[in-house]
């Protein structure tokens, strides 16, 4: 199930002055949705920024999350990390300064697509064709699949501004969390599976560092031939990884389940 949250600009102006309050808006909204759906215990999966929100939700409401699955999750590194020197160097260039200014000004790809008006769909089509033209096995998306994906991406980007308006308050330029999840790893109370595409630009090593501090079961799975959108790049591998992560809940003999071929535990 996909849940979209829309946030009014006036509300954002109130919340955005405090990073913790901005995060709380997402977490508390999800908790209200859980109550409305009368859910008690469930497996929670989040991707990218959704993974960050899912992790923060699990930290606040661990009693409701049986297992947490984080796919290419943001938030496990900060620009203060020694490995982030490249960002400091890039910001010192004129290109980096412009990109950083655009980020801090809340100029998003969504805003660009909206501004293009009737030319927006064609630009999105060019992007999706170039980025998602084929699956990991080399099989091309058919015409129907390509159209559906383009329509989905376009309407998601062109819709009324919502969660995107919060990003700059939670992440600095480069997708570095202002309040990194790594700093709260010792507080983890929910068994967790991390899933990363081998070519994911989100670094899985942040999850490895977090695991050292966690006191609950934690595994990290890497899926071949997949990037940040591993569920599109290699859907078969991604589904295998998710099913393996959920083996305790769907298999009569979870301890005898072996990691599917081609997947890697790190």
TrEMBL record:
InterPro entries assigned: AB_hydrolase_1, AB_hydrolase_fold
Domain AB hydrolase-1, first and last residues per copy: 26-235
TM stretches of this protein: none
Listed GO CC annotations: cytoplasm
GO BP annotation list: lipid homeostasis; phosphatidic acid biosynthetic process
Domain of life: Eukaryota
Entry EC no(s): 2.3.1.51
UniProt enzyme class: transferase
Keyword vocabulary terms for this entry: Acyltransferase, Cytoplasm, Lipid biosynthesis, Lipid metabolism, Phospholipid biosynthesis, Phospholipid metabolism, Transferase
Localization, UniProt: Cytoplasm
The reaction(s) this protein catalyses: a 1-acyl-sn-glycero-3-phosphate + an acyl-CoA = a 1,2-diacyl-sn-glycero-3-phosphate + CoA
Molecular functions (GO terms): 1-acylglycerol-3-phosphate O-acyltransferase activity; phospholipase A2 activity
Family (UniProt): Belongs to the peptidase S33 family. ABHD4/ABHD5 subfamily.
Protein name stated in the entry: 1-acylglycerol-3-phosphate O-acyltransferase
Species of the source: Linum tenue
Lineage per the UniProt record: Eukaryota, Viridiplantae, Streptophyta, Embryophyta, Tracheophyta
